[in-house]
Write a structure and sequence with these properties.
The protein is mostly helical and 171 residues long. The chain has helices spanning 10-32, 37-64, 70-101, 117-122; strands at residues 110-111, 160-164, 167-170. It has a domain at 2-102.
């Protein structure tokens, strides 16, 4: 790219290189099955926020503390730390919004509407592991209606929350 790269900040090149190497590492982990696609996207977003706030903090730190490299080092540490705090706080707010509203953040958060087996068992249902489903025919002439006495009715309120990494479901 010749002359055009002479004016680019070395900090910008370092940040872009770090983001690229991390993205390649996360892509390899996705290919191996260690990460899901949504975890890959969230890791890239986290890295982008932390690195950009670190670079900004380094520039600001160098202006505030004019000692070569010392101001940039202190600013980078402070900026990255603040970036991590901001990311984590905003992540918590977004997850709470997903729990309450069912929002999926453009597919990054999975919504699981199936009820857990322990909740079904507490409600009185038998939970059996089904290996193979066989269909049977229904004969309406043999069907008899019986009354079932209900001794007690328990109401268990369901609560939604985070059940796995970026998965919202019933607790």
């Amino acid at each position: 790219m010749g002359e055009s790269l002479k004016n680019v900040s070395p900090a910008g090149i370092a940040a872009a290189t770090t983001l690229s190497v991390n993205a390649i590492q996360y892509a390899i982990q996705v290919q191996q099955g260690a990460l899901t696609n949504s975890q890959f996207a969230l890791n890239c977003i986290r890295d982008t926020i932390m690195i950009s706030t670190g670079v900004g903090g380094a520039a600001l730190g160098q202006v505030i503390i004019p000692v070569p490299l010392l101001g940039a080092l202190i600013g980078n540490v402070v900026g990255s730390t603040l970036g991590g705090i901001v990311y984590q706080g905003s992540y918590q707010v977004v997850m709470e919004a997903c729990v309450e509203s069912g929002w999926t953040v453009f597919g990054l958060i999975e919504q699981d509407y199936s009820l857990p087996a322990d909740l079904l068992e507490r409600a009185g249902y038998q939970v059996l592991p089904i290996q193979r489903l066989e269909l049977c025919t229904f004969n309406p002439q043999r069907f008899q209606i019986r009354e079932m006495p209900i001794a007690r009715l328990d109401i268990i309120p369901l609560r939604r929350g985070v059940i796995a990494c970026n998965v919202v479901g019933y607790l």
